[in-house]
């Protein structure tokens, strides 16, 4: 029972504003999940997959206009523009609220309004934060059940007075009498708004039913709003995987890693180590909340309870643990349907089946030019389905190393360590991927920078964000802070990728962990510490000395160009380039001259 007055009043306010036909309070139990899932199947919105092949799993197909996050319709709405900073779309809250209230007015007509109390992070943990999502999408309710901890346990905390983030979501498709409900209702692009009000810890999302636009606990709360809370409260909300590693001596260490999209973050979070005696276990694949505790060390939790992963490209070869995780209890969106009621996507098997139903719901035959799955097709699976989930995945874990990375076919070596924490912040600020798109793009070969993999997720001014990272140093001592590394699995020569990647990345992780113990396993270069080859584990790996040399090469001329490119890129900060970045860039230059 919801007793908290703030929540009760808010539900009443939204009921009056959006005018749904009924209200359903989410209890977070299996029975309610199954009831709603069955309703979705009988109304034709979802397809139940063959229970013998894919138990307890659903397939949804979205509207072709609603297939991914829409960054250009994502807003940080504050009183002053400078609080959103140069990397966010800003509309003043005074201007945005009336526009959105107008859209919300009657927007849930003919629909059920779900009230979903949820916890990001284990229920009751000090680091966790609560939210309540009000939504008119059953798809969102079902996904939130997997991606977060929901229901009565959370209501209980709110009843006891814990604060929560108000998250309002409507697909933006009110039903008038006699109107047919489409399978995937949503609003046209110009009416979509994914709005964040960090000054009030509030999220208003309108017009999209897909992923991060609609599952408001994820990018909206756990990154944008949380990053702003974290700045005020002295912690970090980051776009990072969390991985537990045990070496052959049975010593356990934890690392986090931030990578732009399409760099294999989920694969690394579920790595199968290729060298004997090493064990890797998953804690999280997307978001890490990190706090410095009384012992001076930085601890991380995964605020999520599930994986919302990209299906295409996921295979037994690239990520067997993800394949196991999606074997049951999963919601698929925009993958293809097989004749026997199972799912298929690009790379799931080498050969596509002869016949599929594509993500539009049409027949697809092998050899057809179109793709049967959408490139951003997704699976939603509980963390507990992952066969290598760490048993202590709900505990805050001490972080020894933070990895930054990107896709850089040239310039950046396989791995290097920052000289210290501030130099590590510099590495985070310059990360990014080279543009190699299949489409014609005049920027091909240039680097698209994505600082800390947080470009679309920093809920405030990026200059303040960098300064906030730097302030972590004042909370503890340099030796207790995680060591910072830049990895690049994607360096190429004329024959293609130089590094085998996947399970062999454990060799790099091994070197990194030895570095966190200050082992003398390095050589110094102008950009940071590189592996000394005497201490880099290449056992049973078929790779030539030439390729290794190329992988670790730091070429002065190439780096002088890189420095120019960074200087150019730093113009986004205008007059507010953080001092730490100015200092580190100037030190880097000096080390080359
Ligand atoms: O759609 S989500 O934002 O949840 C996933 C992603 O874009 O990384
Ligand atoms: Mn992500």
SSE blueprint:
Blueprint: H1 5-18, E1 22-25, H2 30-42, E2 46-48, E3 58-60, E4 74-76, H3 81-84, E5 89-90, H4 93-104, E6 112-120, E7 129-135, H5 138-147, E8 149-150, H6 152-159, E9 164-170, E10 193-197, E11 202-206, H7 211-214, H8 217-233, E12 236-238, E13 241-246, E14 252-258, H9 265-269, E15 279-284, E16 288-292, E17 298-301, E18 306-310, H10 320-325, E19 331-333, E20 336-338, E21 343-344, E22 355-357, E23 363-365, E24 378-382, E25 397-405, E26 415-417, H11 421-430, E27 432-434, E28 447-449, H12 462-471, E29 483-487, E30 492-493, E31 496-497, H13 505-516, E32 522-525, E33 528-531, H14 545-551, H15 556-569, H16 579-592
Parallel strand pairs: 1-6, 3-19, 4-5, 4-10, 7-9, 9-11, 14-25, 25-29
Antiparallel strand pairs: 2-3, 6-7, 6-8, 10-11, 12-16, 13-14, 13-15, 16-17, 17-25, 18-24, 19-24, 20-21, 20-22, 22-23, 26-29, 27-28, 30-31, 32-33
Bound molecules: sulfoacetic acid and manganese (II) ion (MN).
Residues 239, 286 line the site of manganese (II) ion.
């Amino acid at each position: 029972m919801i007793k908290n007055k703030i929540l009760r009043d808010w539900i009443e306010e939204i009921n009056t504003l959006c005018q749904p036909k009924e209200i359903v309070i989410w209890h977070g139990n299996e029975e309610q999940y199954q009831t709603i899932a069955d309703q979705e199947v009988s109304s034709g919105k979802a397809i139940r997959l063959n229970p013998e092949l894919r138990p307890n799993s659903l397939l949804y197909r979205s509207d072709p206009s609603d297939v991914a996050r829409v960054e250009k319709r994502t807003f940080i709405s504050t009183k002053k523009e400078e609080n959103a900073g140069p990397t966010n779309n800003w509309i003043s809250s005074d201007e945005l609220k009336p526009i959105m209230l107008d859209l919300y007015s009657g927007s849930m007509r003919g629909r059920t309004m779900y009230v979903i109390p949820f916890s990001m992070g284990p229920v009751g943990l000090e680091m966790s934060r609560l939210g309540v999502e009000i939504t008119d999408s059953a798809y969102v309710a079902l996904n939130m059940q997997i991606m977060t901890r929901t229901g009565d346990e959370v209501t209980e905390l709110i009843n006891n007075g814990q604060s929560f983030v108000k998250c309002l979501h409507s697909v933006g498709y009110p039903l008038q009498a006699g109107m047919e409900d489409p399978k995937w209702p949503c609003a046209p692009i110009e009416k979509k708004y994914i709005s964040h009000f960090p000054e009030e810890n509030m999220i208003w999302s309108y017009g999209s039913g897909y992923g991060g636009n609609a599952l408001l606990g994820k990018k909206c709360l756990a990154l944008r709003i949380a990053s702003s809370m974290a700045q005020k409260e002295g912690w970090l909300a980051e776009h990072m995987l969390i991985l537990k590693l045990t070496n052959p001596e049975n010593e356990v260490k934890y690392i986090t890693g931030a990578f732009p999209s399409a760099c294999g973050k989920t694969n690394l979070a579920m790595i199968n180590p290729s060298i004997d005696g090493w064990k890797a276990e998953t804690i999280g694949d997307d978001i890490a909340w990190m706090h410095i505790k009384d012992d001076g060390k930085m601890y991380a939790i995964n605020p999520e309870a599930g994986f919302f992963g990209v299906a295409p490209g996921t295979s037994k070869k690239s990520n067997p643990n993800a394949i196991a995780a999606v074997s049951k209890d999963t919601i698929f969106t925009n993958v293809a349907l097989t004749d026997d009621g199972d799912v298929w996507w690009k790379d799931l098997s080498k050969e596509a089946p002869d016949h599929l139903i594509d993500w539009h719901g049409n027949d697809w035959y092998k050899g057809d030019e179109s793709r049967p799955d959408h490139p951003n097709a997704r699976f939603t699976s509980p963390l507990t389905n992952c066969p290598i989930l760490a048993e202590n995945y709900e505990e805050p874990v001490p972080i020894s190393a933070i990895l930054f990375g990107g896709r850089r076919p040239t310039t950046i070596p396989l791995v290097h360590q920052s000289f210290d924490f501030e130099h590590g912040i510099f590495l985070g600020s310059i990360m990014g991927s080279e543009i190699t798109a299949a489409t014609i793009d005049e920027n091909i070969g240039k680097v698209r920078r994505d600082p800390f993999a947080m470009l679309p997720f920093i809920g405030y001014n990026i200059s303040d964000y960098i300064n906030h990272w730097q302030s972590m140093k004042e909370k503890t001592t340099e030796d207790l802070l995680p060591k910072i590394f830049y990895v690049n699995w994607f360096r190429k020569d004329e024959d293609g990728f130089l590094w085998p990647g996947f399970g062999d990345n454990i060799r790099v992780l091994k070197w990194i962990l030895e570095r966190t113990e200050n082992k003398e396993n390095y050589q110094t270069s102008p950009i940071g510490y590189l592996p000394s080859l005497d201490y880099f584990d290449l056992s049973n790996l078929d790779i030539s000395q030439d390729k290794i040399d190329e992988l670790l090469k730091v070429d002065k001329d190439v780096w002088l160009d890189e420095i120019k490119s960074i200087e150019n890129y730093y113009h986004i900060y205008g007059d507010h380039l953080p001092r730490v970045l100015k200092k580190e860039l100037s030190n880097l230059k000096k080390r080359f001259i």
